[in-house]
Structure formats: C-alpha cells, structure tokens
Design goal:
This protein is of the alpha+beta class. It is about 35% helix and about 25% strand. The protein is built from 7 helices and 9 strands; from the N terminus they run ααααββββαβββααββ. Strands 1-2-3-4-6-5 form a 6-stranded antiparallel beta sheet, covered by helices on one side. The protein is globular, with a radius of gyration of 18 Å.
C-alpha cells in the first residue's frame, strides 16, 4: 500500500499501479496522470462522508452509509413502496460524466443480475436520480464482510468450510453463466446474520 504522502513523489507508472490496486482504473480513462485533479478527486471521495441520510431518491429513503470504495458508495435504504430494506450503490460523483466508468457500473449490475443463486447478491434495478446520479438497487443483507469476521479472530474450521463451499458454489454458478468475477476477496463476501455467504461487487466481472 502506498501512503498518501508518498503518492505525489512516485513515477506515473507506480501511481497508476496504486490506483489499480484500489480498483480505481476508470479514473485513468478520464484524466491525465499529470493533472492534479487525477489524484485529488478520488482521494477526496474516499476520505469524505457525503451526507445523503434522509434523502429520498425515487421511492427509496436513504438511512445510512454502509460501505465505500473507489467505484461507489453503498447506502442502506427503505423502499417506501414495498416497505423493505434495500442497498443502493451510487457511482462516485467524480465519475458521473465518465462514459467508460458508467458503462462499467451498469455492467456490474447486469453481470450480477444475470445470475440467480442463493449466494450471489440480488439486483433489483439500476436507475438514475433526477440530478443525474446513477445507482444500483440491491437486496440488503444484515451481517458483516468476511474481512471483518477474520479480523475478529480465528474462524472455526466448520465455519470456514461452509464459507468456502458456498463461495465455490456461487463462483460455479457465475462461470456457468459465462461470467468471471475477477475480484474475489474477503471484502466482497458478506456473511449474513443467518450464516450465509452473499457474493457482491461484480464491478470487474467479464
């Protein structure tokens, strides 16, 4: 991992490698590495906490932020029409005008929606707010990411085996549909309160 204070002293090739490691490849397609904006926008986005709590987007009331990464921020929301909780993933503001980033964001939704499986997140819709923010509507899962579970201490062998089996089953279903996730890691596996694995973030899928 490259520390923030070191980024501007690195050569462009290493700077690009850092952003690829953080899954921020789409930024390269829009801005030149020589431009200060290339570095400032994603850093501000990752460090900021945009307050959308209480906003109403279509029929969704945003309740709280539950996740953030280079290619989006995820909120827990209430579907006021169906009276249920959902998760809304928004494309970062600095990428809303980036055609390639938006196509990739839509591709993420289509990839996950093409697979019906108990251990893959369910996609309900993809839409755009009145002010032009693109977002994905997904099922909300109460639980923790696998990396958080690992951080709490050793995972018992029986639980580890169950997690591995469910993850393998999800991958097999994706591969049967002709889709390769390409970003399997603990942070993209949600462990629900019921002990089930839910695979998320198909942003790099092909």
């Amino acid at each position: 991992m490259v520390h923030a204070r070191d980024r501007f002293r690195r050569r462009p090739a290493l700077q690009a490698a850092f952003f690829m490691d953080e899954n921020l490849q789409a930024v390269k397609l829009r801005l030149s590495p020589l431009s200060p904006i290339y570095w400032v926008q994603p850093i501000i986005f990752l460090l900021s906490r945009t307050r959308m709590t209480g906003e109403i987007i279509a029929q969704y009331e945003i309740l709280e932020e539950i996740g953030r990464g280079g290619m989006g921020v995820v909120y827990k929301a209430r579907d006021t029409k169906l009276d249920r909780f959902v998760a809304l993933k928004f494309l970062p503001p600095y990428l809303t005008q980036d055609t390639t980033a938006r196509e990739r964001f839509i591709g993420e939704a289509k990839a996950a929606a093409a697979i019906e499986h108990n251990h893959i997140c369910t996609i309900h819709d993809i839409a755009e707010s009145e002010d032009g923010r693109t977002y994905i509507v997904m099922s909300y899962y109460s639980g923790v990411a696998l990396n958080e579970r690992i951080g709490d201490g050793p995972v018992p062998s029986e639980e580890a085996i169950r997690i591995g089996q469910q993850t393998a089953s999800a991958l097999a279903a994706a591969h049967s549909a002709g889709i390769t996730h390409r970003d399997i890691k603990p942070g993209n596996l949600i462990l629900t309160d019921d002990g089930d694995v839910k695979m998320v973030d198909f942003g790099l899928a092909k």
